[in-house]
Every structure is written in structure tokens, then in C-alpha cells.
Design brief:
10 helices; Rossmann fold; 300 residues
Length: 300
């Protein structure tokens, strides 16, 4: 049976696997939730070499600037040549994922969503299980492990962003929030929210609009694509006179060590939202070896 991969991306690991699929000419449908995520992959597509005769097909949901994506049906392109890598843009719930899997009939589903996207992971895993399709989860190395374990010393860990808000309520001083815009509204109850909070978010119109609606303005909104160097993090912390850095434990791939090192230099206390339990999974290089083994069997 020819290998067909369904990759749920949106992370550094997802981009790395996308590049690998393109370079190897493996038939794949790659799913991202935003036009920005699709744009990043498209940029990678343009710079990567492609196997002769292997087309790239992009499929995108209608998008209006400043408007959030709504779930729509993503019909899988019929009759496309083999070994194409297709990019699909738009949010899917569990039923939508299941429908896509039925249409595409992948031999393997790869979940390379964000370590904190536990709801998405649960949906992908459940849809795969219902249809009896092999599923693997890409795991991002934690800074709790190995040589980076010391990065945890002197930090305040909390269960989620609501717990972070409760802890920060009893403090004074500016906060550089690097947890994204998705749950930013859960900090709104914080006393002095619009004065204390400086949110660093992706440069996406809908996210900027959300921050404005929540009451943040001007220099309280920083729109940039990470991960960032220690020096860049340090400069931002100093610029906003941050007494606190609110972050997720996003691992080396997410620039977590650089954030913590910069905060220590800037004398900013670090509040870390604990990573959800990941369960079993594989590192990117392990997933590549799995794909190579399957590809070899297809051609054997």
C-alpha cells in the first residue's frame, strides 16, 4: 500500500516534517489552522528543492482580514497526481477531522500540534481511533529533562492561565505575556490589566483585533514571530519595564531557555504555565525514520 500521510502542523516540528515530506516526495495532506501558518509553509515550499514531476497543491478556506476562521468543509482534491503535498487551511473539530480522514484515507496520521493544544490532540487521536488509522504524536523535548533541568529553579509554576492570573493578582509591576492571544481574555480580570499587561502575539490581524477589543493599546501589543534570542527577549523585557514574564514551557524549539535567561538578566520573575501531560510520542527525527522505513517498504 502506498504511503499517504496526514500531518497536523502549526509548530516548528510540523514545519520540519513538512519540509521532510516535500523533500522525500511523500504523498501528504498538511493541515494548519490559520492563513499565517499556511504562509510560513508556502515560504518553505518555495525555497525547497522538489522531486521532478511532483506538484504542490494548496487548498485554502476563504479568509477575510481581521475575521476568525470558521469551520467549513474541506473537500479533498480528487484526481491529483501522486506524491503531492497539499496544504489545507482552516479549523476542524473532531467530526471535521474524521471526514477529512475518510476522504483522504491516510495510512498514517501525525499530530505535530503545539504541546499545549491538548484539545486538538484529543480530537485528532479520537478521529484516528474511530477510523482505525495509525496515529503518532510528535513530542517536543521538555526543559525539565536532561541538561536544561536547572532552568526550572526559582520559577513559579502554575496549572493554567487562570491560576497565573490569580497569582499575579497579588503582585505589582508590568507583565510581559508570551502565551499568545488564545486565552488572553482570562487575564482581563487582573487589576490594572490594560496598564500592566504587555502581550506578545503573532502578527495576525485577527489576533491584533482581539487584543484591542480586550482593552490593550499601543505599545502594550507586540506583534512578532518567534522564537526569539536571549538578547531580543531581554530588550523587550527592559523596554516594557517588566517585573514579570508569563510564559509556557515551550521547550528549546519554542525559545523557552532564552526567555528564562533574559528574564533573569532583567530581574523579572518568571511565571510558567505547566505543560499538559503528553503521553507517548516520538521526537521529530524518530518520526522521520518511521516515514523512511514505510517509504522503503513501499518501494521494496
Amino acid at each position: 500500500m502506498k504511503q499517504k500521510v496526514m500531518l497536523f502542523a502549526g509548530t516548528t516540528e510540523g514545519r520540519q516534517l513538512y519540509e521532510f515530506l516535500v523533500e522525500r516526495g511523500i504523498d501528504a495532506g498538511v493541515y494548519v489552522t490559520t492563513a499565517y501558518g499556511e504562509q510560513i509553509l508556502s515560504h518553505e515550499k518555495q525555497r525547497l528543492p522538489r522531486t521532478a514531476g511532483q506538484p504542490y497543491v494548496q487548498q485554502q478556506l476563504p479568509y477575510t482580514a481581521g475575521q476568525p476562521y470558521v469551520q467549513q468543509q474541506l473537500p479533498y482534491p480528487a484526481g491529483e497526481p501522486d506524491s503531492a503535498v497539499r496544504i489545507h487551511t482552516g479549523r476542524l473539530d473532531r467530526e471535521g477531522m474524521e471526514e477529512q480522514m475518510k476522504q483522504y484515507a491516510p495510512t498514517l496520521v501525525i499530530d505535530a500540534t503545539h504541546p499545549y493544544a491538548d484539545a486538538a490532540t484529543a480530537n485528532i487521536k479520537e478521529a484516528s481511533s474511530i477510523l482505525h488509522i495509525p496515529y503518532i504524536r510528535v513530542l517536543r523535548a521538555s526543559c525539565r529533562d536532561g541538561s536544561e533541568q536547572l532552568m526550572q529553579e526559582g520559577l513559579t509554576e502554575v496549572a493554567d492561565i487562570r491560576a497565573a492570573a490569580a497569582w499575579l493578582e497579588h503582585t505589582c509591576g508590568n507583565i510581559l505575556v508570551t502565551t499568545g492571544s488564545k486565552e488572553l481574555q482570562k487575564l482581563c480580570g487582573l487589576t490594572g490589566f490594560s496598564e500592566r499587561v504587555f502581550a506578545r502575539i503573532l502578527p495576525i490581524p485577527a489576533m491584533l483585533e482581539k487584543c484591542c477589543k480586550l482593552g490593550l493599546t499601543g505599545k502594550h501589543i507586540i506583534c512578532m514571530q518567534g522564537p526569539f534570542s536571549e538578547e531580543m527577549n531581554y530588550a523587550m523585557l527592559r523596554e516594557v519595564d517588566a517585573a514579570f514574564l508569563l510564559t509556557k514551557e515551550s521547550g528549546t524549539a519554542g525559545g523557552y531557555p532564552e526567555k528564562v535567561a533574559a528574564a533573569k538578566r532583567a530581574n523579572a520573575a518568571v511565571v510558567v504555565i505547566r505543560r499538559p501531560e503528553a503521553g507517548d510520542g516520538y521526537a521529530v527525527e524518530q518520526v522521520k525514520r518511521i516515514l523512511l522505513a514505510k517509504d522503503g517498504n513501499d518501494h521494496g
